[in-house]
Amino acid sequence: MSQTDAAAGLRLDRWLHHARLFRTRTLAADAIGRGGIRLNGNPCLKPAQTVRHGDTVTVSAHGRVRVLRVLDLGERRGSASVATALYEELDG
Q1: Domain boundaries, the chain
Q2: Max Cα separation, the chain?
Q3: Which of 1, 8, 33, 44 is most buried, taking the most CB atoms under 10 A from its CB?
Q4: 49-52: which pairs have CB atoms within 8 A and are 24 or more residues apart?
Q5: pLDDT tens column, 5-43
Q6: What CA–CA distance (Å, rounded) separates 85 from 70?
Q7: CATH superfamily of 3-90
Q8: In this predicted model, what pLDDT tens digit does every residue of 27-84 receive, in sequence order?
Q9: What is the DSSP letter of 5?
């Protein structure tokens, strides 16, 4: 990903899908709409919210809460090992 692309960011629903936190973008968008996702501590209700390198994403889904620091945006949805390189798990 180029510096220009990284500075611009990526839609939150796309990043959640790339990071394999949700099976589809639709499921990610639904979770955002229900208020189960926070970006930098602020509730998100719009799937088009922009996520950037260094942001903190809090995900309440699948019976647990995860706090993640964005390390990379990703080009596309890849394997599980590629997906885990997109974020760092923080202590919640």
Answers
A1: 3-90
A2: 36
A3: 44
A4: 49/11, 49/12, 50/8, 50/9, 50/10, 50/11, 50/12, 51/9, 51/10, 51/11, 51/12, 51/15, 52/6, 52/7, 52/9, 52/10
A5: 545 799 999 999 999 999 999 999 999 999 999 999 999
A6: 9
A7: RNA-binding S4 domain (3.10.290.10)
A8: 999 999 999 999 999 999 999 999 999 999 999 887 889 999 999 998 899 899 999 9
A9: H
For residue 53, what is the DSSP state?
Answer: T
Note the residue count of the chain: 92
Burial class (CB in 10 A: 0-12, 13-18, 19+), 29: buried
Between CA 19 and CA 79 the distance in angstroms is 9
The Cα 5–Cα 43 span in angstroms is 24
